[in-house]
Every structure is written in C-alpha cells, then in structure tokens.
Design goal:
Layout (H helix, E strand, L loop, with lengths): L14 E5 L5 H10 L5 E5 L11 H16 L5 E4 L2 H14 L5 E2 L5 H7 L4 E6 L1 H4 L2 H10 L4 E6 L3 H6 L6 H17 L3 E4 L8 H8 L4 E3 L2 H14 L11 E5 L3 H12 L7 E2 L3
Parallel strand pairs: 1-2, 1-3, 2-9, 3-4, 5-6, 5-7, 7-8, 9-10
C-alpha cells in the first residue's frame, strides 16, 4: 500500500464509492463531512437496480466489474455503499482484489443491541437483506435473547430512486412497513439500507420521539478514516474533487442526486459495465 514517501501524491488518490442507485449517496455525504479533504468518485449502478432481485452470483459479477472500473481510476479505498452487495459480495471482492481495502455496510444490529433499554429492537432493510443468512447471523450473534422485529420494506428503495421522497405514496408505504414496528414497540430502530436515511426524519416522525433511529453512514465514514489513518493515506489537499458516474441515464441521476443531496451534481459520466 502506498504511503507518504512519494511526495504527498498517493494519499490524495480518490476514494471509490458505489451502490445500486442513489442510496449510497448517504454514505458519500457522511464521508464528505468527516473527511473534507478526500476526493470522491461515486458510481450508481442504475442499470441493474435493485440489487435485491439479483442472485448472489450476479451480484459478485456486477460488483467485480464495478471494482475494475474504480481501479482504472487509481482509487486507494473502496466503499461498498450497499447493504445487499456487502452481504452477498464483499467477501468475494476482498478475495479477488486483495490489494485494495474495502469498507462495507451492514445492518447496525450490534449498535441496537447495545443501546436498547427495553430489550426490543427493529431492523428495516430491503427484502433481500431481511431474509439473508448474514442478517440472521448478526441477530444470533449480537442480539440473543432480544425481541427483534425484522422488516423487509419492499418498494421503498424504488420510490427513493425517483427522488420524490415527500409524496403521499412514500408516506403510505412507510406507514405500512412501520406498522409491525409500532406494534412491537422497540426503543431503537436500525436502517439497514443506505437509501433509507433520506427518509430518516419521516420515519422518526411516524415512530415518535421515544424511538431512536440509527443508520450506518457515520460508522462507515469513521471506518474509512480509520483504515486511511492506519495506512498513512489521509488526503492533504485543500481542494478535493467529486466525480459521479452511472450505468443508467446520466441526466436523471444528476437531477435526483442534486435533489437528495441539496448539492449541485453536474457532469455525470455514463459507464457501461
């Protein structure tokens, strides 16, 4: 792994971040805030969203192609900003690309188990993540003896992909998915999909002020900082660059990303995997 001995250039290489769509922008936002000197490259694999409908083999092939794209851009760290891709593909990616460090996103079960006072927790994720053996193992390992409400929120990711997160359709879908959570009365809820933090305020409003809602974006950013610190690769540049790519429609992605981030996303590049 490159270090500071090369005149200060290696640490200013970009961080690569990808998701099946715009959800990973919540991770992009957290990394930008915590590591303001880092250049970031973000890829939305919109041509293949949602990942929850793909087989594990399809996900491993798609994500490997995405990593090869990032390696051509000389990234120093890869962030898999998608719960489903992390669950089904990150181990494969680490084996296939041993020279690049990876940071993944997993449901915050361990945090929920530590923070609950009632012994009741809930996890909101995509249907694929909710039924995965990976999440089941996390619950078994970190939440034994706790009452766990595990909700697979079908359709929610697709609505967020449109960028219209304040409409009646989103409210109705949230109320349907949060009904079993309200019935179970947990005191902590984890957002197990990177899309969902865009709806965090709406979720908190429905659940009420006594329920704490956790998402993985800040822990992922802290893990990225930790790995870069260990490798002496924290950026030193004053003016980092931000580049965005999509495998789908570039204009559509730019419009949705700008709306969600409240940040002007321009000059989006198109990528064919």
């Amino acid at each position: 792994m490159a270090s500071r001995t090369d005149g200060g250039q290696a640490e200013n290489r970009p961080i690569g971040i990808f998701d099946s769509g715009v959800g990973g922008l919540t991770i992009w936002r957290a990394i930008r805030r915590l590591l303001p000197r880092e250049s970031l490259i973000f890829l939305a694999d919109d041509a293949h969203v949602p990942y929850g409908e793909k087989t594990p083999d399809e996900l491993r092939r798609l994500t490997a192609d995405i990593v090869r794209f990032f390696l051509r851009h000389n990234v120093k760290l890869m962030v898999v900003a998608c719960n489903t891709a992390t669950v089904y593909a990150i181990d494969h990616l680490r084996e296939q690309f041993p020279d690049i460090p990876f940071v993944g996103v997993v449901p915050v079960v361990k945090t929920l188990a530590r923070r609950t006072r009632k012994g009741r927790i809930a996890v909101l994720s995509t249907p694929a993540t909710s039924r995965s053996a990976y999440l089941g193992r996390l619950i078994e390992e970190f939440a034994p003896g706790l009452e766990v409400t595990n909700v697979g929120c079908d359709g929610l990711e697709d609505l967020i992909e449109t960028g219209n997160i304040r409409g009646r359709e989103v409210t109705e879908l949230l109320r349907r998915h949060l009904a079993p959570v309200l019935a179970a009365q947990p005191d902590v809820v984890g957002l197990g999909c990177t899309h969902y933090p865009f709806l965090r305020a709406r979720i908190k409003k429905i659940l009420g002020p006594e329920v704490r809602v956790y998402d993985p974006s800040r822990p992922v950013a802290r893990r990225a900082r930790q790995l870069l610190t260990w490798a002496s690769q924290l950026a030193t540049q004053e003016e980092p660059s931000f580049r965005f790519y999509t495998t789908g429609d570039a204009d559509h992605f730019a419009a949705v990303a700008s709306k969600l981030l409240r940040f002007p996303v321009r000059d989006v590049g198109h990528v064919d995997l």
